[in-house]
C-alpha cells in the first residue's frame, strides 16, 4: 500500500497542460493528463489519513502482493447465511473491508458501504450511467459499469474505483470511505484503440501514491484494443503514465487479480497478441517499474507464437511472488517458475510443468500455492531450488480465485454456485455451502468472523454457528 503522505489538492475545473512522461522501453509511453471532472461533493481538506485496522481487507486478495492470505483468523464454525444484501447490480469485484464496513461496487456504477453485521446500507454513491450491452460491440456483462475490484488508500482515506459510463468512457473515482463523498473524478483512457472496445476488469492496484489501472478487451476480442496499464496520482491531478504492449492489437491485461505489487515494481500477465511471426510483447509476464511504468524485465514461453495463434496465453492468471521466485500459469495449462531477479526472457523459466488451465489469481502461503483451474483447484509447491511439485486436487465445475485463512482454503465453484472450505494440507472438504448465483472468477473475503461473497444481485455474508 502507499507508504508516503500525499498532498491533498482539490481537482480544478478544466484541463491543465502538464508535461508528458518520457518513454523508456518499447510499449512504455505517457498520456496527456486526463480532464478532471467537476461536480465533486467534498473537498480534500475534509479528509484525513485512515490507517488500516486489524482485519481490514483493503484490496483484491487482501494485500498488494495478491497473496490471498489472511492468517491468524479463527475457524468460523458451521457456516450459514447471515444476510443477503440485494443491490442495484451485479458485484464482479471482491468485497473490501475498510474500517468495519464492507465496500462493494456494482455494474450499475454504484459504490456501497454495508454494515458487516447485518448488510444495512451505510452509504451509497452512484457515479455514472453504465453502458448497456446493446451499445457494446461484444462482451458478456450487461450493463457494463464497475467490474474491477476497487482499492482503498489509507494515505488519503479514499476508495478508488473505475466506472465505465455512457459512450464507453472510463472514469476513475475516489470516494471518502467514511461517507461516500466524491473527492476525485477523472477520465482514464488507454491512449490507443477504440474506447468502447476496452473493459476494465482487473483489480486496481496501489503503490507510492498512485493507482494502477489495467485494461483488456471485451469477451469476444472484438474491435481494436491493446493491453494497457495506466498510473494515476491519488490526488486526482498530474500526469497519467502508461504502458502499452508493443503489439498492433489484442494482448489484453485482464486477469481479475490485476497487477501484483512486488516492491518497486508491478508483475503483470499479458494475453495473446496479434503476431505469430515476431515477438510482440504479448503472452508474457512483465515487470513494470512502478514509478515510470517502463518494462524492466519479462518472460514469455518458447511457445508464444503457437499460444497467440490458439488464444492460449498467460494473461488469464495474475502472476505472484513465491519466495525468491515468481509463479505464472495461464490458458495453456503450463505452470512456470521464474527467478524473481531475472524473469528469463523468451523460454528462460527456472522450471515448468503441466498444472492446469488457470484463471483468476492463486492464493499463496510460504512456498505453497492454490491455483484456480478451469475445472478445479490444484495445490502446487515450489521447492527451494525452484522445482514444481503437484499436490492434491479438487475437481469443480469452475474454480474461482481461492483465499486462505481461518484454518481453510476457501474457493467458490462458480459453475455450481457453491462455497467450499478445504483442509490446506490434503484438500478434504470441511464445509460446503450453497450460494446465490455468482459471477465468473468470483473470490471470497474473510473478515469480521464472516465470509463475504459478491453475487449477481449484491452481496452475501456467511457466519459460523
List the helices and strands and how they pair.
Blueprint lengths: L27 E4 L37 E2 L8 E8 L9 E3 L2 E5 L4 E5 L6 E6 L24 E3 L4 E8 L3 E8 L5 E6 L10 E2 L5 E3 L2 E8 L10 E6 L6 E5 L15 E3 L2 E6 L13 E6 L5 E6 L3 H7 L9 E3 L2 E4 L5 E6 L5 E2 L4 E4 L8 E3 L2 E6 L2 E7 L5 E8 L7 E3 L2 E6 L4 E5 L6 E6 L10 E3 L2 E6 L2 E7 L1
Parallel strand pairs: 2-30, 20-24
Antiparallel strand pairs: 1-16, 3-36, 4-5, 5-6, 6-7, 8-9, 9-10, 10-11, 12-14, 13-14, 14-15, 15-16, 17-18, 18-19, 19-20, 21-22, 22-23, 23-25, 26-27, 27-28, 28-29, 30-31, 31-32, 32-33, 34-35, 35-36
What does this structure look like?
- With 465 residues, the protein is mainly β.
- It has a single domain, classed as Quinoprotein alcohol dehydrogenase-like superfamily (Methanol Dehydrogenase, Chain A).
- The protein is 2% helix and 39% strand.
- The chain contains 1 helix and 36 strands.
- It has one helix spanning 304-310, and strands at 28-31, 69-70, 79-86, 96-98, 101-105, 110-114, 121-126, 151-153, 158-165, 169-176, 182-187, 198-199, 205-207, 210-217, 228-233, 240-244, 260-262, 265-270, 284-289, 295-300, 320-322, 325-328, 334-339, 345-346, 351-354, 363-365, 368-373, 376-382, 388-395, 403-405, 408-413, 418-422, 429-434, 445-447, 450-455, 458-464.
- The strands form 8 sheets. Strands 1, 12, 13, 14, 15 and 16 form a 6-stranded antiparallel β-sheet that branches. A 5-stranded mixed β-sheet has the order 2-30-31-32-33, with no helix packed on it.
- The longest helix has 7 residues, at 304-310.
- The model is unreliable at 1-26 and 29-33 (pLDDT under 50).
